[in-house]
Amino acid sequence: MIREGKQLLITAAVVVAAFTAVIALSAYVEGARPKLPPEYADSDLSLEGKRLKGYALGSEGMLADWYWIQSLQYLGGKFVDSKDENIDIGDLRSLNPRLLYPYLDNATDLDPKFYAAYSYGAIVLPAIDTQNAIDLTEKGIRNNPDKWRLHQYLGYIYWRQKDYEKAAQTYEAGARVAGSPPFMREMAAAMRAKGGSREVARAVYRQLIAESEDEQSKRNAQLRLSQLAAEEELEAVNGLLTSTRAAGRCPAKLSEIFPQLTKITLSEDADFRIDRSNSLVDPTGVPYSLDPETCKAFLGKESKVPRSAE
Predict the structure, then answer these.
(1) Are 15 and 56 in contact (CB under 8 A)?
(2) Of 206, 147, 199, 157, the residue nearest 177 (C-alpha)
(3) Any bridge partners for residue 280, and if so which?
C-alpha cells in the first residue's frame, strides 16, 4: 500500500510538472514569435487542458483555476491594449476576444461545477458571441441542475436577444428549481407582458447586481442601469430642446431649460442631477453637452455611461 501510494504521488507530480513545463514553453513561444497584426494576434490555445480530464490524477481543479485566471487576464488585457476610449460593454467584438470562450470551456470541462466561470461567461459572452454564451450557460445548467441562477443568466441572454418568449420559458424553468425566489416566476410573466420595456430592463439588471457572485458582472449591470437612466434623461431633455427650437431659438446652455425640467416626472420618481457649477449631469456625474447646431444634448466626453445610450 505504501509503495502504491508513493507511485501515485510520483505520477501526480510528473503530470503537474509536465503541465507546468508546457505552460512555460507556450509562454516562451508566445514571446518569441514575430509581431502580428491585431486581428491575428491571438493564436489558438496551445494546450487544451480539458483533454487531460480523467488523466490528471485529481489535479483537474487546479488546471480549471488556471484557465479561469487566464480568461480574466485575457479579457482585461484586451481592454488595456485597446485604443478605443469609448468601448461599448454591450458589444465587445471590436476587441476580438475570440479565446475567451475556449478558456472558459476548458475550465468548465475540467471542473463541471465551476459556477463562477459559468456566471462570468453568461454575462460577458453575449457581448462577443451569443451562441457561445448560450452553449456555456446550458452546459452549466446540465452540470449544476440545482443552481437556479444559471436559468436567470440564460433568461438574461435570451432577453438581450429580444426573444422574450424563450426568456420567459427559461425563467419558468428556473422557478421550478428548489430554493428559487419568487421573482423568477414574476420575471417570466413580465417577459411575456412587456419584455422590451425599460422597466423590465431595470428589473433584470438590478437582479444581476443582487444575485451575481462576481464583481465584474455587478459592475457591468450597474453601468447598464446608468445607461438606462441617461437614455430617459436625454429623451426628456431633447424633447424640451426640440420644442424650444421650434419656438424660435436654441438655448445657449442647458441651464436655461431647468424650470421646464422640474415639471417632468422620470421613472420611479428619479430626479435630474445638477452639480455645483449649475450643470446638468449624467448618472456618472459628468455634465451633458449641448450641440448648438443640432440643438441636441448628448453624453459628455468624460462620461462613463456606455456610449450606446446616446
Answers:
(1) yes
(2) 147
(3) 274
Look up residue 214 and give its amino acid.
D
Q: What letters, b where the CB count within 10 A reaches 16 and e where it falls short, cover 26-64? A: eeeeeeeeeeeeeeeebeebeeebbebeeebeebbeebb
The identity of residue 200, as a single letter, is: V
- Count CB-CB contacts under 10 A for residue 101: 20
Cα distances from 175 to residues 37, 135, 180, 265, in angstroms, run 47, 21, 6, 34
What would the pLDDT profile of 264-291 be if each residue is shown by its tens digit?
Answer: 999 887 899 999 999 999 999 999 999 9
**Run of H or E residues at 8:** helix 2-32
Whether residue 253 contacts residue 295, with contact meaning beta carbons closer than 8 Å, is answered with: no
Q: Which residue has the cell 429580444?
A: 162
Instruction: Give CA–CA dist 235/224, Å, rounded.
Output: 17
Over the stretch 167-226, which tens digit does the pLDDT of each residue have?
999 999 999 999 999 999 999 999 999 999 999 999 999 988 887 777 777 888 898 899
